[in-house]
Amino acid sequence: MASICNSLTLPPKLSFNPSPLFTASISTSWSPKIRPTTPRSSSSSTRSVTDDPKSPEPISIDNLRRFFDLSIGKWHGSFHQFDAKGKLMQKVSTKLAVSSYGEDELISLIQTLYIKQSPSSTSISNYDEEPEWAEYKIKETNMFTADKYQQIGFFPNGRAFSLRYQTAGMLETVLRQGVLGEDDTGEESPKNLKLPSRQPSIVCENCLYSQEKDRRARAFHIMDPKGILEMLLIFLEDRGDGVLFHPSLENNSDSLNRILPLLGKWKGHSQTKRSGVYGATIAEADTIALLELDDKGQLIQVHQDRNPISSLIKKQDISSTSDGGDVTTNVRWIGTRSDDLITFDGGYQITLLPGGMYMGCPSDIAKNVAESKSFHLEFCWLESPEKRQRLVRTYDVDGLAVSSTYFSETKM
């Protein structure tokens, strides 16, 4: 995820050090037909998260190893591109090979993404040709990159994580190879294809793992240079050598069907951790969330945290209470629905997606930064009618990812 850039008027005290997260190279593994791709170069700001000086080093190494173990394997999936209103724009088949090497502080994660190429417009019709896969090498993840550049928020028990990306180069490559393929002429704005901005203000990945099967959903918020939601991207992936098909989200365009499963009362528990592999738990709370439609068609949401040390509030704010005593925090907010886009008072919006998913973000991050308000991005996955998971990434007034919160909830 890339931090907020100059267009959002950051304070002058921040430094900017270009360091692309991704690199491209060539490999011959997995597919006999490989077309190497070269990502664009870019320059993004990087800022480190202050480590908790009280956290012992072995804990961070253990967390990194557990994160690697959770990621290692062969993943078969589908990449989905949605606009800000939840309309499916593109779908591409993908494979991801993940492995590791090294020991202790020197352990590193290697990831190679394979993208099913779109056939050329000049190819012979009805010719049964084996599909070609473009390859994209992702820069290795290690102790340094996970803490300084990616600012990981990891929940080993819930099997969830948040990551920061400095560019959208990998995501653009998936779109170019998967939609244009050999017909890609390298244009900055190809016809009939929406690409991420060259200098996005934020690229955030929130990943939730299935509680029922070896599957995960990796959701990306892409915010344009002005801090407005540009697009939403989701990888839905199954792990294993014997995966015969690529899982995908059904494009259900009925907005009522997307909102109905989310209505009702949800009870659960939340855990908040500081960003970085040294991140300590800074809050835990029992939670109750109520979402209902009134007779005017408005959405009413009430969110309650009980006994929080630091309570996450959905109006892009953080409310802190003392850790002594029995404290309950209630938040009530009203939203209006336009098809699959819900806009709440206070400038927060939620986009309803197929597969029991939704993604939330501020309507205008630049406004939050200008008003010195913290903000957050959210990903929710309702995998079954009675259970859901949510992952929230919180940013401070400078646009720095400072914490992540994981929710596990059951419908009452």
Please characterize this protein's 3D structure.
This protein is mainly β. The chain is built from five helices and 22 strands. The protein has helices at 57-71, 143-148, 169-180, 255-259, 365-370, and strands at residues 34-36, 73-82, 88-101, 108-116, 133-141, 153-155, 160-165, 202-209, 215-223, 229-239, 264-274, 281-293, 299-306, 310-313, 317-320, 328-338, 341-344, 348-353, 357-362, 375-384, 387-395, 401-411. The strands form three sheets. Strands 1-5-4-3-2-10-9-8-7-6 form a ten-stranded mixed sheet.
Draw up the topology in text:
Layout: E1 34-36, H1 57-71, E2 73-82, E3 88-101, E4 108-116, E5 133-141, H2 143-148, E6 153-155, E7 160-165, H3 169-180, E8 202-209, E9 215-223, E10 229-239, H4 255-259, E11 264-274, E12 281-293, E13 299-306, E14 310-313, E15 317-320, E16 328-338, E17 341-344, E18 348-353, E19 357-362, H5 365-370, E20 375-384, E21 387-395, E22 401-411
Parallel strand pairs: 1-5
Antiparallel strand pairs: 2-3, 2-10, 3-4, 4-5, 6-7, 7-8, 8-9, 9-10, 11-12, 11-22, 12-13, 13-16, 14-15, 16-17, 17-18, 18-19, 19-20, 20-21, 21-22
Domain DUF3598: 62-240
Domain Biogenesis factor required for ATP synthase 1-like C-terminal: 329-412
Protein name: DUF3598 domain-containing protein
